[in-house]
Specification:
The chain is α/β, with parallel strands linked by helices. It contains 9 helices and 8 strands. Strand 1 and strand 2 form a beta hairpin. Bound molecules: adenine.
């Protein structure tokens, strides 16, 4: 499941250039019974199976000691992917991109034994208010968002600055050639070569788009007085 996303594009390049490494571990490899049991019925009853604590503790402790023996003990986030976690944002991606290592635990089935939460994990992350069948896709989302922030991973670091959410606004509209397609023209200002005007137009468009699609983001965006007045005018019209 993890192989194909990490074997193409930006990821592959980053892995090949040793800017990042992603290792996947199967908790079944940390069981001691013949059937490699990783889940069991819930105490107290109820539908669904619960992931047992032992394989998860043993897997994480083994990975952790590997990392510490090579690199010494540093801060090592141990993150459980779960719909009950704090909601993932670009800000959290930036925060995570500062760590040298992190361990992500993918929950599955109906849940994870509570002792994993209480005594092993340091953080719980949800990628949104919906329930996936497991934490794997969520882990890939987190890894993708973090890896593209690492120095050298994207061709041009400048492109990060204009990303949606980096400055608390959605990104402005982008165009490429042809200048006219089916009668739809690229806004004249973008063809003008006037960089100041282009920057102004983009900023205004980013604010307008944010107002249209995600108005609640504007409360936290750093708008000038003039920009706030512009937003008020747009709201009234
Ligand atoms: N596992 C199942 N649903 C999830 C979600 N929304 N975010 C993170 N992990 C999950």
């Amino acid at each position: 499941m993890f192989q194909s996303p990490f074997s193409i594009g930006i990821f592959k390049r980053a892995i090949d250039r040793k800017l990042v490494s992603v290792n996947t571990h199967n908790i079944r490899d940390y069981t001691h019974d013949r059937h490699h049991t990783v889940d069991d019925y819930a105490y107290g009853g109820g539908a669904g199976m619960i992931l047992k604590p032992e394989p998860i503790f043993e897997a994480v402790e083994s990975i952790k000691s590997d990392i510490c023996s090579k690199e010494g003990a540093g801060v090592l986030p141990i993150i459980l992917l779960t719909p009950q976690g704090r909601r993932f944002t670009q800000q959290i991606a930036q925060e995570l991109s500062r760590y040298r290592h992190m361990i992500l635990i993918c929950g599955h089935y109906e849940g994870v034994d509570e002792r994993v939460r209480q005594h092993l994990v340091t953080d719980e992350i949800s990628i949104g208010d919906y329930v996936l069948s497991g934490g794997e896709l969520a882990a890939m989302v987190v890894v993708d968002a973090v890896v593209r922030l690492l120095p050298g991973v994207l061709g041009s670091e400048a492109s990060l600055l204009d990303d949606s959410h980096t400055a608390g606004l959605l990104e402005y509209p982008q165009y490429t050639r042809p200048a006219a397609y089916r009668g739809w023209s690229v806004p004249q200002v973008l063809l003008s070569g006037n960089h100041a005007q282009i920057a102004n137009w983009r900023r205004e468009q980013a604010i307008r788009r944010t107002l249209g699609h995600r108005p609640e983001l504007l409360d936290k965006a750093n708008l000038s007085l003039e920009e706030k007045q512009l937003v008020d005018r747009w709201k009234q019209s």
